[in-house]
Amino acid sequence: MNEAVNSSKAKDRLNQMLSSGASQDEAFALFDTLEAAVVHEMWDLWKGEEIVTGHPLEGLLTSSGWYGKMFESPEHVHPLVFQKKNGELYAVNPLWIPLKLPFDKIPRSPIGPAMTLMRPILRTRKSAARLRQIEYRGKSGAAMVYDRKDIIDVFRKVDDNTLMAIMDVKSLPSDKTYFFVLHRVKGKEFTP
């Protein structure tokens, strides 16, 4: 019963952050109370949503058509799943996503059309990340390690179908962390 109450309170707090935003400290305060996610419980398609905390990347993924992530096995992960206007999902190769840009200066409105034009180049059928057990902020749990980028996403469990996550990028300044949420999706087709 106590675990269900804690999960309910965490989900309420998370929903509040998703609708109103949060400071970095507030987001970490919730993140640190959550149980570490377990690798073998993550197999599925997950829809992503960002938490606004003041990170320069905020809004870029959303305006580009980012849908979420697909975890097939420890060795086969699609970290960037996007959605076309017709609802079809496709994976993007993160190798082509530049990380050393002034993200806070990039206008968000032309990103969607640019992604449509670039889709034939960016699209991939190959896995571009792996899941591993990693210690982060005092807890050992599921983390997604990009194959060819200096990025690790760390996951904490809100409930069986909701994960709170951070994106740790070695090449970006560490004074801000990108926070996001993943919601398990059932019944939606995705074949890379």
TrEMBL record:
Residue ranges occupied by any GXWXG domain in the UniProt entry: 29-87
Protein name: DUF4334 domain-containing protein
Coiled-coil annotated spans: none
Source organism per UniProt: Saccharibacillus kuerlensis
One Pfam family it belongs to: DUF4334
Ranges for domain DUF4334: 128-184
Top-level taxon of the source organism: Bacteria
